[in-house]
Design a protein that fits this description.
Distance between the termini: 40 Å
Structural class: alpha+beta
Number of helices: 4
CATH architecture of the largest domain: Beta Barrel
Strand order of the largest sheet: 1-5-4-8-2-7-3-6
Largest sheet: 8 strands, mixed
Shape: elongated
CATH topology of the largest domain: Barwin-like endoglucanases
Oligomer: single chain
Order of helices and strands: HEEEEEEEHEEHEEEEEEH
Number of strands: 15
Helix content: 10-25%
Length: about 240
């Protein structure tokens, strides 16, 4: 099985800094490598958060095909992507791939440069074991989570990819496979892939009952109100930081 690795980091912010996938075992690829020019496009204002469809031209790929894009010439670092549309550009002299600019920002891809691509013959070689999604200021019920994840089956995902499905938004934060290197930066979602949803805007509400006893003094001369606000709450918020 082919695994695509990212560098391990020590803090959540560093974990979001994406490097690239490192290939440990040879994948099951089809045919020979093809040199393609990579262009980028941006999302139109007011459009959904979903990435602009990945389009290919003269690359001998069909809609739904998976391919690996070598980020460096020796092929030791690569990303797996999926074709969304096929358009024959008559003006294109060489095979061409049009990607969302978010991909170019996340991975070290230089626009208008040429990269080697290789069609994947067995998508299961890139199967993901776990996908971690983050969301903000939204409520997802169990049914919402199930419907959301079912739409991702048989698609490729990568770190920091944004989704908007059924008016629900989420971003890919972490990807894992069963074997080493375990944490990867891109992969293929199957019906066996597990999902974890994490809210970045979760809140906790504390209620303090104000009564006459709150103004009584303890043995140290402090009021119970002071102990609650300056003691308990202060220590709690410090710990949560």
């Amino acid at each position: 099985m082919v695994n695509l690795r990212t560098n391990r980091t020590s803090s959540p912010k560093q974990q979001q800094l994406v490097n690239t996938n490192k290939v440990l075992n040879p994948p099951r690829l089809e045919g020979t490598k093809l040199l393609c020019k990579v262009n980028g496009t941006v999302r139109t204002p007011g459009a959904s958060l979903n990435d602009v469809p990945l389009t290919v031209s003269k690359a001998n790929l069909a809609k739904g095909d998976l391919f690996v894009l070598d980020l460096i010439e020796d092929g030791t670092k690569r990303i797996v992507l999926q074709v969304d549309e096929v358009k024959e550009n008559q003006n294109a002299r060489t095979p061409e791939i049009i990607i969302d600019l978010n991909i170019a920002k996340t991975f070290p891809i230089k626009l208008y440069e040429k990269y080697n691509i290789h069609k994947v013959s067995k998508p299961e070689d890139f199967e993901l074991y776990l996908v971690e999604l983050t969301l903000r200021e939204q409520y997802f019920s169990r049914g919402d989570m199930w419907r959301f994840t079912r739409k991702l089956v048989n698609t490729t995902v990568y770190l920091k990819k944004c989704f908007e499905i059924f008016s629900m938004r989420a971003t890919v934060y972490g990807l894992w496979v069963k074997n080493a290197p375990y944490r990867v930066s891109s992969g293929y979602v199957t019906k066996h892939t597990k999902f974890v949803f994490r809210s970045l805007s979760a809140c906790c509400t504390l209620f303090l009952q104000m009564s006459k006893e709150m103004w009584d003094f303890d043995l140290n001369g402090d009021t119970y109100y002071e102990k609650a606000v300056d003691g308990f709450l202060s220590d709690l918020f410090t710990r949560w930081k």
